[in-house]
């Protein structure tokens, strides 16, 4: 067994976050005083202070005296403890794999270091730039301390604009609400607007505390609103695991993401989080009403004559809007990813709370997967042990089996949309659908029927995440090594799962974005939003869109076809735009001047003597990049790299590897295995090498008369080694010295 691979922890240890975990402080901490606490006694020895009161030198009311630890290290300790509890629960002999509820989160809620980290994240979202910890002014630290004390004392209210504890960095000259008139106060309280900046800081802090707790508990079959689990990971999981299934059940629980029941959310939350302060904060965020614009106010608004408006110049600190290519790509978002939960004053915490509620569905279906599993020995998909017998390098291929097939169920969820695959008769899918309707009605109070949960066969095509799942029969040549080392080639037959991009859906999105019209023969339309942009800027924006589209369809079997179609639509749209802009009458005239990829300039200035290339060389004009993927051969091939079985995101792998390396039982097992195999660890080998070097160096003869005794001592240590291993090959100085003596 090889020694522990500590190189995998480089990226984790590079954050300076696990230094206090792996190497605790050598001295013993002093006894705790009143109002002091230890956030995690097993991982940290630093003490926080509640209410600005604590021991130590300096002013106890100075916020800088409370910033003692690295906030990333504190957060990392919570990640490690949560995943360690989940790993212990999964390896225990008990029937339930759910870890015990975590420790109280109030000590973490009291750490001013975490409040500073939450402020930095909210500041980056507000201004679009990162603020180092050393650049935070003292007044902001004092305001953060006041906000923290208000949260701990239950004086904080979401949506409160009258008593701001912390001002937005962009609202430096905001008036004090105490100095406003009644009319302005009424307008401040009734006019809808962005949430107060202090609300966003509290939301970021709650996300820092709750995300590690639930990431260790969530099912591996959910892929939305979670770090490291992108739509691409969901598509690759479908290609890896859903090949043998015949019937599919599609469901949509998006109503739960639009209008949640606060009692349902708090009930799901309180099962895993037993901290009263955290639960009360989230309950307050869900129950506090949000100020919205009324229809009567919009109707009574006077119609004013549109006046000439000057071009708005954004301030330096204000974040710039999304570029045109990014806005266009957002229009291609699949139906499953269009619903982003936003619950009251929860803000960035809403997606996590949505997954907390839907995790009950994940756990329920995981139990049904075990219940519906009925193996068959004659089926190649799974035997008595449940292990797939197919080709792991070609997981989407399933060899043909006999009439008696293994009955099994699999499941995947992305946001409020889920997909269930059933291998077996359609009756099994109907029974599972009936039970699913009853569960959603009782647990989520959502009425589902057969129309909301259709059962579709794989041969008709099943759409999920804008990709169509279908199956076709193939007859590949199978080569394998028989007994005796003989290679046998024979014709096989089986089914192949095909994951293709929906061209129909792509045309629908282009039509919605007004890039084309028509269904059977799509006709590109000019992109007039880029009318006032230069040719170089327009081509650059569209190239970014095409590159992003090519990356989005990376795992589609028809990647070349669909990306080349997108390039055709965009190229035709730009050609019509340039024809209208430069009065060239037709697309053919544009292609003749600007070439096929629109890389040549379409219009030069009158009386301009130098050529375009000379101006470009002198830096007087912008270089014009040609459009990408104008030919199908330029589009990259689909990525068929199989997803490993039991795949996990990188951060989860690193956390689990770190937990294994810090487990004394694992280290002892590795040492015993090394001793049994007669191996030697690199550390022991280096120690022996250094010790032998020191011993031999001391025994080297200082005088000719001592040579014989030295060589005898050296020979006693190196009797079992030849000259080559000792490094004395070609050097006979020791025998000569022995003869001289």
From TrEMBL:
It comes from the Eukaryota. GO terms for cellular component: mitochondrion. Transmembrane segments: none annotated. It comes from Miscanthus lutarioriparius. The lineage of its organism: Eukaryota, Viridiplantae, Streptophyta, Embryophyta, Tracheophyta. This is Domain X domain-containing protein. Residues 499-593 form the Domain X domain. SUPFAM superfamilies: DNA/RNA polymerases. Residues 704-741 are annotated as: Disordered.
């Amino acid at each position: 067994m090889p020694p522990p691979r500590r190189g995998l922890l480089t990226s984790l240890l590079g954050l300076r976050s696990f230094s206090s975990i792996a190497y605790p402080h050598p001295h013993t901490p002093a006894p705790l005083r009143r109002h002091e606490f230890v956030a995690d006694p097993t991982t940290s020895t630093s003490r926080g202070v509640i209410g600005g009161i604590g021991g130590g030198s300096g002013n106890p009311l100075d916020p800088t005296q409370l910033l003692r630890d690295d906030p990333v290290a504190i957060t990392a300790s919570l990640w490690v403890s949560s995943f360690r509890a989940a790993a212990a629960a999964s390896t225990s002999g008990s029937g339930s794999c759910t870890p015990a509820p975590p420790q109280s989160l109030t000590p973490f809620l009291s750490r001013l270091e975490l409040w500073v980290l939450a402020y930095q994240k909210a500041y980056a979202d507000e201004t679009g730039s990162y603020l180092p910890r050393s650049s935070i002014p003292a007044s902001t630290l004092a305001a953060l301390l006041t906000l923290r004390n208000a949260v701990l004392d239950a004086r904080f209210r979401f949506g409160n604009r009258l008593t701001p504890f912390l001002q937005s960095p962009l609202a430096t000259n905001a008036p004090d609400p105490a100095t406003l008139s009644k009319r302005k106060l009424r307008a401040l309280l009734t006019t809808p607007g962005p949430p107060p900046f202090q609300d966003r800081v509290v939301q970021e802090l709650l996300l820092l505390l709750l995300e590690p707790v639930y990431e260790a508990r969530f099912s591996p079959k959910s892929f939305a609103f979670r770090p490291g689990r992108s739509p691409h990971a969901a598509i690759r999981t479908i290609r890896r695991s859903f090949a043998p299934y015949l019937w599919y059940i599609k469901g949509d629980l998006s109503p739960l993401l639009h209008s949640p029941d606060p009692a349902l959310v708090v009930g799901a939350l309180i099962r895993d989080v037993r901290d009263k302060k955290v639960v009360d904060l989230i309950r307050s965020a869900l129950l506090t009403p949000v100020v919205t614009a009324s229809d009567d106010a919009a109707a009574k608004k006077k119609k004013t004559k549109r006046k000439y408006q000057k071009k708005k110049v954004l301030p330096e600190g204000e974040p710039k809007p999304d570029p045109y290519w990014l806005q266009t790509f957002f229009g291609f978002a699949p139906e499953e990813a269009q619903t982003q939960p936003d619950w009251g004053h929860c803000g960035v915490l809403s997606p996590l709370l949505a997954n907390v509620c839907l995790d009950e569905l994940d756990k329920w279906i995981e139990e049904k997967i075990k219940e519906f599993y009925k193996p068959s020995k004659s089926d190649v998909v799974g035997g008595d042990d449940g292990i797939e017998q197919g080709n792991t390098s070609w997981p989407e291929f399933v060899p043909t089996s006999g009439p008696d097939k293994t009955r099994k169920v699999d499941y995947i969820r992305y946001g409020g949309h889920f997909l269930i695959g059933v291998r077996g008769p359609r009756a099994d899918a109907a029974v599972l659908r009936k039970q699913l309707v009853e569960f959603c009605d009782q647990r989520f109070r959502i009425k589902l029927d057969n129309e909301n949960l259709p059962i579709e066969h794989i041969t008709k095509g099943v759409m999920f995440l804008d990709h169509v799942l279908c199956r076709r029969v193939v007859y590949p040549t199978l080569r394998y090594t028989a007994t005796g080392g003989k290679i046998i080639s024979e014709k096989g037959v089986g089914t192949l799962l095909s994951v293709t991009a929906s061209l129909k859906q792509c045309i629908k999105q282009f039509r919605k974005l007004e890039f084309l019209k028509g269904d059977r023969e799509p006709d590109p339309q000019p992109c007039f939003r880029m009318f006032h942009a230069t040719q170089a800027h327009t081509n650059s924006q569209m190239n970014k869109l095409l590159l992003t589209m090519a990356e989005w369809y990376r795992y589609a079997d028809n990647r070349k076809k669909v990306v080349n179609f997108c390039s055709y639509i965009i190229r035709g749209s730009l050609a019509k735009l340039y024809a209208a802009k430069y009065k060239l009458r037709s697309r053919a005239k544009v292609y003749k001047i600007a070439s096929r990829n629109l890389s040549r300039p379409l219009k030069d200035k009158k009386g301009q003597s130098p050529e375009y290339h000379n101006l470009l060389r002198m830096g007087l004009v912008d270089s014009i990049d040609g459009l990408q993927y104008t030919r199908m051969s330029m589009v990259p091939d689909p990525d068929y790299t199989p997803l490993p079985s039991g795949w996990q995101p990188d951060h989860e792998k690193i956390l689990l590897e770190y937990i294994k390396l810090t487990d004394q039982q694992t280290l002892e097992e590795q040492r015993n295995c090394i001793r049994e195999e007669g191996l030697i660890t690199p550390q022991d080998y280096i120690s022996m090498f250094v010790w032998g070097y020191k011993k031999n160096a001391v025994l080297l003869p200082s005088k000719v008369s001592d040579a014989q005794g030295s060589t005898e001592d050296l020979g006693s240590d190196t009797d079992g080694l030849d000259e080559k291993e000792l490094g004395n090959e070609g050097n006979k100085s020791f025998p000569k010295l022995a003869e001289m003596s």
